[in-house]
Design goal:
There is one protein chain. By secondary structure, this protein is an alpha+beta fold. The protein has three domains: 43-465 and 477-481, no CATH class; 493-612, no CATH class; 638-713, Immunoglobulin-like, CATH 2.60.40.
Length: 755
């Protein structure tokens, strides 16, 4: 046999199967190698990926510090890690306003143990750009190891599996979009690929369900919808493979494993589902297409051209600004040299082919399907399957006949890559020519090296080529090396110490009114004088401005805030000093704002004049800071309606304890948004109505007389999710135990794990 195929065993084996490994004779891998001993290849691959990542960091100094990484992920993980160090789990931050529902955002991975461990690690850094690089390097390495393992499980040789383990982490979308901008996406594809490999091993009998369930749970608890989609598609592909092989008992086991993974998904997404009605994404179109970040087949034909910028709607233009569909310089030019007939029967690899085909189709699909936006996000999942197929075909070695013909076709492919790149950005013709020459030389060198020294030379050549191409490519196309959009081109501060230094006059609750689109001074955002998203909160301040992916529509639309706390217009300044409907207090008091940061030159001159009880504490070229003369002690700010007196108010866990007095009853308004999960009662157990007041704030209806109201918060779905996970964990343990017992039955073939 030349490929790893499913082979039926005795009927009483409990569904076990054996794996034929084609590489044992070809690469010197021995079945007697001790289980659990790390393969030297894995250590070498990890070192190789780390080296390339460092080189990228050298040519692109702000690698990993752009976009959502700067405003969302790393500042929030710093807060989560700091809370864990204090013995708290930051699932909900009552002072976070639109960003309060941390677990409801789902994307911060608060149920993922690896993410939480990294959050603790990140919290030890003030320089978040440094922490972001180290975490990104960790997941680039994990991704490369996962791709290598997946290739081996499908019958690829060690050399080709090692090579594709280098290729995927430095493909265009993974490097620029995931590593450079959306670290959640990198975490997702990493765990999905590990799940993919574990699913294959379970399907063939080389591994039990335990690893599949663990990796699947790690994938879905990242909280990124594409990870959930990826796991479902991978399990569906493995199911098709088992159905084709008529392995029904093992298919049943796969379904049980999938249900166990589903329990973790339920825990992750129940809080999000509860929060969606409050957000601004609840009414999103189910299916739509404006071709935003939607590549075409023509774009994918340039996957071996380092300078091709796909012609897709992106960043307000008609092409991307980074080579997001790039895969590797070596893949397409080597296709003419593959031994296409030596790869064996592909029917035993349906678990690879079905997901790859699905991901590829979705990459070319509409730009929105329910919660899944921007099909470009799936190109890296397609590429994983394609490079594994490439590794399988390559494992037989390069063809040695018809050398001139094959060389001519390879040269034509390299030339076609130049044409596609030039047609996208014709002004960069010299760069395209230079890179075409470099790719041609690398391809020729690779072919010569493999013909002379065998397949052992192939991963070395891929590594050398990647060390040349990727850092140079990143040095030209890194996000901050060219214009993207004006607000992101400003850059963002990465040092929390710098933020604290620029904000040392701030006291109490801080509200920044600033439209990042109108800022012309990059020093203001890079120096920490103006911050967006979660950065000010990560520096230790109570901030009204937070990043939110789900949003709280009633609050954000009323104040014209976008998802990162930046203004969409300057009208909120007029609202701050107006009384809130139904209450005799201005909005600035109802929100409990103590420090008001105003962008210089964005508002009317009189808006910068302190009102009674306020003073100016700071003026510089970027901002004007107003502050209350007397900043109250920390705690909830409660505003009463006519006829209600607030006697005292204090924090109580995630809620509050409020003492009020009223002859006829009335309402009180808290500076907390009315996220689902609040409930209130009096000390004698009477229920107090909790509703949404003006601007989405918590409004309580209090009874007549003297009353102490206990406001409590419980994360919606958390108890249900934990119970389901407990059941799933017990089922997973039993499933693994039964599998191990089946493996020990007399007459059951002993399977050997793939390295």
């Amino acid at each position: 046999m030349t490929t790893a195929m499913l082979r039926p065993t005795t009927p009483d084996d409990g569904g076990a199967t054996t794996v034929d490994d084609p590489d044992a004779s070809r690469t010197g891998v021995r079945g007697s190698r001790r289980r659990g001993r790390p393969a030297p290849d894995a250590a070498l691959l990890a070192a190789a990926i780390a080296t390339v990542a460092v080189l990228v960091k050298f040519t692109w100094p702000r690698f990993t510090w752009f976009g959502d990484n700067t405003e969302s992920f790393y500042p929030m993980w710093h807060m989560v890690g700091s809370a864990l160090r204090e013995g708290r789990w930051l699932g909900f931050d009552p002072t976070g306003f639109a960003g309060a529902n941390v677990v409801g955002e789902s994307g911060y991975g608060l149920f993922n143990p690896v993410t939480l461990a990294n959050a603790v690690f990140i919290s030890g850094f003030d320089e978040l750009a440094r922490a972001s690089f180290l975490v990104t390097a960790e997941f680039l390495i994990l991704l490369g190891l996962a791709v290598r393992r997946l290739a081996l499980t499908y019958g690829a040789g060690r050399a080709s599996a090692f090579a594709v383990g280098i290729i995927v982490p430095f493909s265009g979308f993974t490097l620029y979009w995931d590593a450079g901008n959306w670290i959640g996406g990198l975490m997702s594809i990493t765990w999905v690929v590990w799940t993919w490999g574990a699913a294959r091993r379970y399907a063939t009998g080389a591994g039990g369900p335990g690893a599949l369930i663990v990796f699947g749970a790690l994938a879905v608890t990242v909280g990124y919808p594409y990870a959930l989609l990826g796991v479902v598609v991978v399990l569906a592909g493995s199911s098709v493979e088992l159905l084709s092989a008529r392995r029904f008992r093992r298919l049943g086991g796969l379904v049980v494993a999938g249900l166990c993974i589903g329990a973790a998904a339920l825990l992750t997404y129940l809080p999000l589902i509860a929060a969606l009605p409050m957000g601004y994404r609840d009414g999103a179109a189910t299916v739509s297409n404006v071709s935003y970040l939607a590549p075409s087949i023509g774009d994918l034909l340039g996957l071996s051209s380092p300078t091709l910028l796909p012609e897709i709607n992106a960043w307000g233009g008609t092409s991307d600004v980074v080579p997001s569909v790039y895969l590797s310089w070596v893949v397409l030019p080597l296709l003419p040299w593959l031994r296409w007939r030596s790869s064996g029967d592909w029917r035993g690899r349906l678990g690879l082919l079905v997901p790859t085909g699905f991901f590829l189709l979705c990459t070319l699909g509409p730009d929105r399907l329910w919660m899944f936006r921007w099909p470009l996000r799936l190109v890296e999942y397609s590429y994983v399957g394609l490079v594994v197929c490439f590794a399988i075909l390559l494992s037989a070695g390069l063809a040695t006949d018809q050398v001139r013909r094959r060389a001519g076709i390879s040269a034509g492919i390299v030339a076609a890559g130049f044409f596609f790149a030039w047609s996208s950005t014709p002004d960069d013709v010299l760069a395209h020519l230079g890179w075409t020459a470099a790719v041609g030389a690398l391809v020729a060198g690779t072919i010569i090296a493999v013909r002379r020294r065998g397949m052992g030379a192939f991963p070395a050549m891929v590594l050398v080529g990647t060390m040349i191409v990727t850092p140079a490519q990143a040095g030209t196309h890194g996000w901050d090396h060219h214009p993207v959009v004006p607000d992101l081109d400003l850059g963002r501060v990465s040092d929390l110490a710098a933020v604290r230094g620029a904000s040392e006059t701030f006291r109490g609750t801080v509200l920044q009114l600033s439209n990042v689109h109108t800022i012309g001074d990059a020093g203001a955002t890079r120096g920490g004088r103006l911050t967006y998203g979660n950065m000010l909160a990560a520096a230790g301040y109570v901030s009204v401005n937070h990043y939110t992916g789900i949003g709280y529509a009633a609050f954000q639309r009323s104040l014209s805030f976008d998802h990162r706390g930046s203004l969409l217009d300057n009208d909120p300044m007029r609202q701050l000093n107006r009384n809130v409907p139904g209450y005799r207090a201005p909005l600035v008091d109802v929100l409990g704002v103590d420090t008001l940061v105003l962008t210089r030159g964005a508002f009317r001159p009189r808006d910068y004049v302190p009102r009674p009880g306020w003073r100016t504490v700071l003026r510089d070229e970027a901002r004007h800071v107003l502050q209350r003369r007397e900043v109250p002690a920390p705690g909830p700010r409660v505003t009463a309606s006519r006829g209600v007196d607030v006697v005292a108010a204090e924090d109580a866990g995630l809620g509050a304890r409020i003492s009020v007095r009223s002859d006829d009853g009335g309402t009180i308004l808290l500076n907390r948004l009315n996220w689902p999960g609040y409930r209130a009662s009096t000390e004698d157990g009477r229920t107090v109505a909790v509703g949404e007041g003006p601007y989405g704030l918590v409004e309580l209806t209090v009874p007549p007389g003297g009353t102490v109201v206990h406001l409590e918060y419980e994360i919606p779905g958390l108890r249900t999710g934990l119970l389901v996970v407990l059941v799933g964990a017990l089922a997973a343990f039993a499933h693994q135990l039964l599998w191990r017992r089946a493996q020990r039955r007399p007459g059951t073939p002993v399977t050997r794990p793939v390295a």
